[in-house]
Design goal:
The chain has 311 residues and is an alpha+beta fold. It is built from nine helices and ten strands. It has three domains: 47 residues, no CATH class; 106 residues, FAD/NAD(P)-binding domain, CATH 3.50.50.60; 119 residues.
Length: 311
């Protein structure tokens, strides 16, 4: 992408370069000097299309999938953290904090970093190790929820650029999404909920001890841009990469998937087959990468590979 901007004489336009970098950061998890042209061009087209609003929040994208699974006679097990996966003569034994399950197939939808730690098979560990990225090559997030006694703006989703960056983490953009004024599942009449996020590089070492400082700085930026009023904040709650690690157990509290890198072509990312016997992977750390479309496509690929290989 850097070469492309150079080709058109745009690298000298700092405002445009800043715009491209922050757009690529949310779509490709990296800046223009690392993102390949094909992925980058696609990522920059992202904002040409309208966003969709899901009443009640993104949980209502998951519920139809859960309902379908149950309608097919299957069961969804909640609150069972997987601690180990072993290969058996007939398939796999998945051990959780509440017991174990035997199955012919296993599909991991968690990051490769976590998947590597779970599989006891040395051969799988050796094959997977070369695809795993360390914290220094990943991004975490500082997120915050606001309850506001105001109406949402007409445009619900915003990317706010921050000149000079935010304190403590240096992030140069803030993403904020407001609940729809008519969405009573998210907030009662007279209130709206705002979801805020910003990138944190190398989350393993960027522990944020002064959370209140960052919360205040973010709110001030949003107030200065006219998106919120400080006096209308009824409640706020911030979450660091440490909180993401605690609640989701994603390694380092990393979010957003594996970033695009010049030395890793998209087709060189880990594919869906894990051990070429009955274990498969999908999610935002395997091909084709991050974002809801990428994650959904990776799940479709894993399912089709399993059917093609085994059934």
């Amino acid at each position: 992408m850097q070469d492309m901007l150079h080709r058109y004489g745009l690298l000298q336009n700092k405002l445009f370069v800043d715009f491209v970098n922050e757009q690529l950061l949310i779509t490709a998890q990296n800046h223009l000097h690392q993102v390949n042209e094909l992925f980058g061009a696609t990522a920059l087209c992202y904002t040409l299309y309208g966003n969709y609003y899901v009443p009640g929040g993104l949980i209502n994208m998951v519920k139809p999938v859960v309902n379908y699974i149950k309608a097919q006679g299957s069961e969804v097990k909640y609150g069972q953290q997987v601690t180990a996966i072993e290969t058996t003569e007939t398939g796999y034994r998945t051990t959780t904090a509440k017991g174990s399950f035997d199955s012919r197939f296993v599909i991991s939808g968690i990051p490769l970093n976590n998947t590597l730690a779970l599989f006891q098979n040395k051969s799988v560990q050796q094959k997977l190790q070369k695809y795993v990225l360390p914290s220094g090559m990943l991004n975490g997030a500082f997120t915050m929820g606001l309850v506001l006694q105001q109406k949402s703006p007409e445009v619900l989703h915003h990317q706010v650029h921050v000149a000079g960056g935010l304190p403590l983490i240096g992030s140069r953009s803030i993403f904020i999404s407001f609940s729809h004024n008519s969405d009573r599942q998210r907030a009662p009449a007279g209130e709206v909920v705002a979801a805020i996020s910003t990138h944190v590089p190398d989350p393993a070492i960027n522990y944020i001890g002064q959370k209140a400082v960052l919360e205040e700085a973010i709110c001030r930026v949003l107030a200065n841009r006219g998106l919120i009023r400080m006096e209308d904040i009824k409640y706020k709650q911030g979450a660091t990469p440490g909180a993401w690690n605690f609640w989701t157990h994603r390694a380092y509290g990393a979010v957003g998937g594996y970033p695009q890198y010049r030395h890793i072509k998209p087709w060189q990312m880990k594919d869906a087959r894990l051990d070429h016997w009955g274990a498969y992977v999908c999610g935002d750390t395997v091909y084709p990468g991050q974002g809801i479309p990428g994650v959904c496509l990776s799940g479709i690929i894993a399912a089709r590979k399993l059917v093609q290989d085994q059934l």
